[in-house]
């Protein structure tokens, strides 16, 4: 066992699983080719054969490998790659992305609520906030869990639209809503037990955590969204010359 494996808190078989998965993604072993034998992989990574077998079994369950007695383990074609969400670095491009998206939305919570933690910019509204928490699903897969906090005076006149449509375009397209500032933060976190069940991930899998805040001309927070995305659904592209 190498020092790299010892430094990780993850079980050894999961570390080996991730190494093999990365090799498959990089094309180290192509579809139709045989995976190196358990003995060869055991020697390569200096781990027990049972550890290799556990890792291979996980990748079989994921549909990446197929083992047959007497024939070895064959690399299978990768599953279809989900269409990525391009998280814009400008409000206009982000709204355009949402306008072109038609996810299935399942409501998890719908009530008055306080914003957790400090907003990225602005001050909290004296009117309070309405929370809409829901999952977004595309092609049968839940790809994000989003909690949206909308200032109550902004929510009330258009509550039906907010409940049935993607919230950000509804907000931006409302002529009487003044948006003066907008900021978004993005970080990579780990999936907890609650998110794991909703996003069909394992505990500890990477997730993209986004906090998005919009303020009016009085620097009042009128919209705040906390979003947890599956990492395989997110792409961030920036024009470095813009």
TrEMBL record:
Alphabetical list of SMART domains matching this protein: HTH_GNTR, UTRA
Keyword Transcription regulation in annotation: yes
Superkingdom of origin organism: Bacteria
Protein name listed in UniProt: GntR family transcriptional regulator
A Pfam family matched in the record: GntR
Entry GO MF terms: DNA binding; DNA-binding transcription factor activity
Keywords: DNA-binding, Transcription, Transcription regulation
Key word Transcription regulation present: yes
Ranges of residues in domain HTH gntR-type: 10-78
SUPFAM superfamilies registered for this protein in UniProt: Chorismate lyase-like, Winged helix' DNA-binding domain
Organism expressing this protein natively: Actibacterium mucosum KCTC 23349
Gene Ontology process terms (BP): negative regulation of DNA-templated transcription
């Amino acid at each position: 066992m190498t020092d790299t494996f010892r430094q990780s808190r993850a079980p050894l078989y999961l570390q080996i699983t991730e190494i093999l998965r990365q090799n498959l993604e990089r094309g180290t072993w192509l579809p139709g080719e045989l995976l190196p034998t358990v003995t060869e992989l055991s020697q390569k990574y200096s781990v027990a054969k049972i550890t290799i077998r556990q890792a291979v079994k996980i990748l079989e369950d994921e549909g990446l490998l197929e083992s047959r007695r007497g024939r070895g383990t064959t690399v299978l074609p990768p599953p279809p790659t989900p269409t990525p969400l391009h998280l814009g670095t400008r409000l206009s491009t982000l709204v355009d992305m949402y306008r072109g998206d038609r996810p299935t939305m399942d409501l998890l919570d719908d009530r008055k609520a306080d914003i957790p933690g400090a907003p990225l910019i602005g001050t909290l509204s004296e009117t309070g906030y309405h929370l809409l928490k829901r999952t977004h699903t595309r092609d049968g897969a839940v790809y994000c869990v989003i909690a949206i906090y909308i200032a109550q005076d902004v929510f009330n006149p258009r509550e039906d639209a907010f409940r049935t449509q993607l919230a950000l375009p509804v907000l931006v397209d409302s002529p009487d809503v003044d948006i003066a500032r907008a900021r978004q933060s993005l970080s990579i976190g780990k999936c907890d037990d609650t998110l794991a069940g909703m996003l069909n991930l394992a505990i500890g899998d990477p997730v993209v955590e986004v906090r998005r805040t919009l303020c009016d001309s009085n620097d009042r927070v009128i919209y705040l969204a906390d979003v947890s995305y599956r990492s395989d659904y997110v792409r961030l592209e920036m024009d470095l010359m813009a």
